[in-house]
Amino acid sequence: MGLGWPHLLLLALVIFVLFGRGRISDLMGDVAKGINSFKKGLADDDSTASKSADTGKTIEGTVTQDTSASAKDKTANS
After folding, report:
1. How far is CA 56 from CA 50, 53, 59, in A?
2. Has residue 51 got a pLDDT over 80?
3. In angstroms, rounded to a whole number, what is the distance separating the alpha carbons of residues 16 and 27?
4. Whose CA, among 6, 12, 30, 56, lies 20 to 30 Å from 23?
5. How many helices (H) and strands (E) does the chain have?
6. Average pLDDT score over residue span 45-53
7. Does pLDDT of 18 surpass 90?
8. Which of 1, 2, 30, 24 is closest to 12 using CA atoms?
9. How far is the CA of 12 from the CAs of 5, 9, 24, 31, 51, in angstroms?
C-alpha cells in the first residue's frame, strides 16, 4: 500500500501547479547555494584545524607512580 508511479506523478503535478516553474527553480538554486556554503565551511574548518595542529607543543617527560600513603589518601578523598 505504498506510493505507486501514478501517485507520485499526481503529487509532482500538484506541487508544480502550486509553486510554479519559477519558484521551484529558485528553490533549487537556493539549495545549491546552501550546499556550496556548507562545503566551503567544512574546507575552512579543515584548514583551521590543520593550522592549529601545526602550532601544538609536545610535552616530554616520564610518568611515575606515587605509592606513598599520602597519595592514596588524596585519591580516596576526591
Report:
1. 10, 5, 10
2. no
3. 12
4. 6
5. 2, 0
6. 67
7. no
8. 24
9. 10, 5, 11, 18, 48
